[in-house]
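Reviewer 2 asked us to include a model.

Predict the structure of this chain.
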Amino acid sequence: MDTDVQKYSGNESRNVDYSNSDISNKSFWNCSFANCDFSDADLSGTSFESCAFTECNISNARIDNAKLMNVIFDTCKLLGMKFHKCSQMSFEVHMKGCHLALCNFSDLQMKKTEMTNCSIDECYFQNTFLVESKFTGSCFKSTLFHNCDLQKANFVDATGYDIDPMVNKIRKAKFSAPEALNLLNCFQIDII
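Predicted model (structure tokens):
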């Protein structure tokens, strides 16, 4: 292990502007960030374990090889995030009430992930393992699910999703009517 890595434990940051900052190759454990701006920051190689972000702007931040372990995002703005470039070995996030746009979650193992009551616009889930994940109350717009494992996922009260059951595994997933009719879009049929 690299002994030169700066480590932070139990720190609380409020209203701090980290935008365009180099916060790469650091280690944060049990830290909280509230109303902080991380837009365009470099978080490459940084480890966040058991951390919480509340009402933060984390747009276009660089997160190559970042470790996100048991990280909570509450009412955050996450735009242009390339989550697929994070460390695959330790990826566990929970999001509630967040606005996600143009984010890429492809090829990630995200079992039991929570994205509840979120606005999810033009995001990408390709070859993503989402078994038992929870998307309740979320609103999707132009979001792609392709070759994903969504078995036992919960989409109750979610809207706007377009999931093709021919190319995604949806066994025992939960959907509510009338939005569940979106699952028939791939068949190009008219329901009257």
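The domain at 6-187 is CATH 2.160.20.80 (Pectate Lyase C-like). The longest strand covers residues 67-74. We have added this to the supplementary material.
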